[in-house]
Amino acid sequence: MRILVIDCDSLRPDHLGCYGYHRDTSPTIDSLAENGRRFTNYYVSDAPCLPSRTAFFGSRFGIHSGVINHGGVNAELRQRGHRRNTNTSTDGYRSLPTALRDVGHETALISPFPQRHGAWHTVDGFDRWIDTGERGFESADVTYPFAESWLDDHATEDDWYLHVNFWDPHAPYDTPIEYGYPFEDEPAPEWPDQETLEEQYESYGLHSAREPPVWDDSLPRQPSEIGTREEYVEWIDGYDTGIKYMDDYIEKLLDQLRAAGVFEETLVVVTADHGENQGELNVYGNHVTADDKTNRIPLIVHGPGVAEGVDDDFYYHLDLPPTLVDLAGGEVPERWDGRSFAESVTDGESDGREYLVVGQGALSAMRAVRWDDWILLRTYHDGIRELDPVELYDLAEDPHETTNLARDRPDVVRKGLAMLDQWVSERLMEVAHDRNGANPEHERAPADPLWEVLHEGGPFQGRTGTRWFDAEEYAETLRETGRDEHAERVLEYEGYVPQDVEGYLDGEDIWS
């Protein structure tokens, strides 16, 4: 089987036409969805970049692998210990590319990601890794020639797996200026409105409306702050333009398959490593929570034997590796956490999970439960932004997570908390009984890595002492901009959220 996985960094599904977006950002991806299978409730188990791709290539939850952070002890895999063999490609923890190589596939990764994050374990099993060289700041015109060259050499071969990583939707929004402004005459999304922007501007937080992730003030597609609708339009145009530019180069890849006469025989997958908040929870251009907009990603599958249609069931992104191995006729490793949904892909049968628990440990420390129309956020360290210990949103009525219903619906909150407790208990019990993706041989195996992150000082990109944040400096910035109350909260708590959930649900001020 020929397999092309197109991995689009920071791509949220609701900015694609096939997911209902009003702008024409993605005609190529939309055409694949029209004649393929589209998944609407597909979530990364662990966000953002390093935890997500670790979970994907190994098909293991971060609570089992240990990788949930971007620095510190939980940015490294928990090693196999004394059970490690001389050749790890034959054990139950082997990677997705290894499992495909076992059934005769040539495997290749085109991505700067292993170098950007020191994620050498993600190269495991690839016959060839091609580093595109700009550490995630390259645009599609830089990435594409590497993929073009590889396909020139291998497209007509029978069995291969090519994983191509595009970065254009990731901030900074720096699409080549000669590409122009394709959306300057099209209306931007109506939300956030001016009232929302003004409220967010007076609040605080890393990557918020007042302090969006802008590292270079000279970039023409990124305003330095987002306090007005005009600035928001400029900001979101930059994001959407990156998507459209990338989509153009995805079309080039597909054209190359067509020219080689193998397009209809190739399984093409379009997905992402995480989504992107664009105002939700007062976060812009980043992926810092475990909410719907950070953890929900697109999945479109097109190719031979794929049942056309839409699947609304719940799936983790780590369920895709066993699905691909099944479709390729391989054997799914016994130590994977993922569950194959190949029957959905080929027969259109519902094959999802009852609910999902997703997490974030790099820019905040939190988990979320996703079921029915609900998402419940459970926050332990807010990553220096205005979050409560529990937040409940009805995504059907409130897709941008503007109205926290936790105090109005404590019954739903408690149901979500019970599911969260069940999920954590089941994963840690798997450690105790040496099942699925657990690795009980590691010296820290019984510990939940989220609590290790908290013990270490909090998420790597939201704690004092790293190059990402200094509490005293940020508090001074808040005071200089008239936000003294927020400065005091930052200094007193340094991101750690009070955990009196019952008091919070009863309406108490748990911050006083």
Task: Set out the fold topology.
Blueprint: E1 2-8, H1 27-34, E2 37-43, E3 46-47, H2 49-58, H3 62-65, H4 96-101, E4 106-110, H5 113-117, E5 128-130, H6 140-154, E6 160-166, H7 194-202, H8 229-259, E7 266-271, E8 277-278, E9 284-286, H9 292-295, E10 299-302, E11 309-316, H10 320-327, H11 342-347, E12 356-360, E13 365-371, E14 374-381, E15 390-394, H12 410-433, H13 449-456, H14 471-480, H15 484-493, H16 501-505
Parallel strand pairs: 1-6, 1-7, 2-11, 3-12, 4-5, 4-6
Antiparallel strand pairs: 2-10, 7-10, 8-9, 12-13, 13-14, 14-15
Write structural notes for this entry.
The strands form 3 sheets. Strands 5-4-6-1-7-10-2-11 form an 8-stranded mixed β-sheet. Strands 3-12-13-14-15 form a 5-stranded mixed β-sheet. Strands 8-9 form a two-stranded antiparallel sheet. The termini are far apart. It is an alpha/beta fold and 512 residues long. The protein has helices at 27-34, 49-58, 62-65, 96-101, 113-117, 140-154, 194-202, 229-259, 292-295, 320-327, 342-347, 410-433, 449-456, 471-480, 484-493, 501-505, and strands at residues 2-8, 37-43, 46-47, 106-110, 128-130, 160-166, 266-271, 277-278, 284-286, 299-302, 309-316, 356-360, 365-371, 374-381, 390-394. The protein has 16 helices and 15 strands. Helix 6 runs parallel beside helix 8 and helix 14 runs antiparallel to helix 15 (484-493).
What are its keywords?
single chain; 512 residues; alpha/beta; eight-stranded mixed sheet; five-stranded mixed sheet; 16 helices; 15 strands; 15% strand
